[in-house]
Request: fold
Amino acid sequence: MAIGSPFTAEHELFRKTVRDFAEKELLPHQEKWELERAYPKEIFKKAADLGFLGITFPEAVGGSGLDAWFKVVFCEEIVRCRMAGLAMDLMVQADIATPVLNALGTQAQKEEFLIPALKGEKIAALGVTEPGCGSDVANLQTRAEAQGDDYVINGAKTYITNGGQADFITLAVRTGDEGHKGISLVLFPTATKGFAVGKKLEKLGNHSSNTALLFFEDCRIPKKYLLGEENLGFTYIMKNFQGERLVAAISSYASADLALQDAIQYTRERKAFGRRVLDFQVWQHKFAELKTQIEAARRLTYHAVTLFNAGQECTTEISMAKLFAGDLAQRVAYECMQAHGGAGYMAEYDISRYFRDIRLITIGAGTSEIMKEIIAKRLGF
Amino acid sequence: MKIGVLVKQVPDTETKIKVLDDGSGIDENGVKFIVSPYDEFAIEEALKTKEANAGSEVTVASLGPSRCVESIRTALAMGCDKAIHIDDEGSGPDSYVTAKALAKVIGDQGFDVVFCGKQAIDDDMGQVPQLVAEFLAWPQVMILENLEISEGKAKATRRVSGGAKEVYELTLPAIFGCDKGLNTPRYASLPGIMKAKSKPVETLKISDLKGDANNKLEYSNFRMPPEKAPGKVLSGEVGDQVKELVRLLREEAKVL
Reply:
């Protein structure tokens, strides 16, 4: 174990497994899956069998019960499949739609939804964003009306990752008054009558990901599918965001580092004006600067992980990590494409894919502006 | 069945190798070590054999310095049950001494079958398994392409040059040298990695196992291969290029 490294021999063995899986099982299919905007569902099963989905979940629900450093390893290496879409779908399954279910779910709910999800047998999605509200979660309009032992749900959700292929949705609905005090979370089986998936949404990037617009028309689900308590959904969602933002921060600096390696490799081989592009000091300094910033983003994120692992309050640190790493990744994508010149604008070079994919990271899981808002509030402004 | 796997730890194929100043070997500083890739096929074949024969157990053995335990952990994480590390005590054994020590261990363990890679990718000697078989008076089949085991007998197919195949029917115990194409090695799953932590690793010393065998080989004067000359790109009409290519192959490369 290197000095200052949080990673043990087991973490490094796991790193090799994730890297090999990303490079040998996923990357070879990149062109097809990105073009077709889809990949085989069995990827979830394969990921589950290798323990990718249940890393930090307790063994009682089929997880490995391990620390968040294993999660860090997974996120750092899965970017090597070079499909942010597919990687995001796996993270929705493991980090976004299901942790809240583990935290609040009843034994029956866990058996019906969580355990099959961690086995890769049921695909999960998180349904919060609506056509009329994104970051402004407190304003969501999809309504769940209590009728006897059931809820009857009406409304729509959009930009839902895994939306078109989910077996169940951890769904935010309005059960009470306007504002953040009237929101609940329910577990919604997509086999419910009245549920419909709109057309697959075309996106700038993350092409392999299944992103959908969802409709709910008089969808009747039993009240036993309520997660936690009624009208406390807003708090649950905000808490759930922490793990999601952490994986977003890790994905940002890890993918930026990969893009930087690609650019360094390209400029090492590419000649201009009689010498290698990398021989120009302007690029050497540019790469030195980006590498320094990536390392800074990594260390800031590691600090947040240390607090997260210890169960300490770390909303500020996680928000800072996502803000810093997410914004940095945009600059890295820009500069690395610049280093590739015209070739970088061509689809055959991965930097063009990265340039499109990474744009999402300052928008999804809370925009950079929301991150600043959170940090500002905690500064007492 | 008692199943054995022999694993060698070798430098990662992506490592940049540096030769020591005195030419006595390679500089191991900063070198990342991995399980020799052919040995991964051996591990997989051992695990498949275990799965096909209820009540079987797979023991992985590796000979080398203490860093070999990392490779042993990889094999345990993939699913092997226990391990033996044979400490080379810094003696730098050659194939002969290595095989002597391994043969002793294999004999003592009473394995029914032993798998190994057809060769290690560091020095590419490809002779330890055959020597082990010789010392134990066991049959061996190298460059294994397919294997069927049933009731103490094995049918082993090996590739030979020219696309031909040889099929051997033999009685166990036997030793098999595995090749690419035999199977697809599994990944070490996260639960497997965590389970491996508590699997037993026994440490033995080479000096207790090799008997009076001594190295027959002395390593000296390691050198890097000469730099490859830059390639030549021909230009002009295709017809002229072909003529020029044939001339170069005949007159310069002297391969035609």
Remarks:
- Residues 233-269 of chain A form the longest helix (37 residues).
- The CA atoms of residues 184 and 230 of chain A lie 5 Å apart.
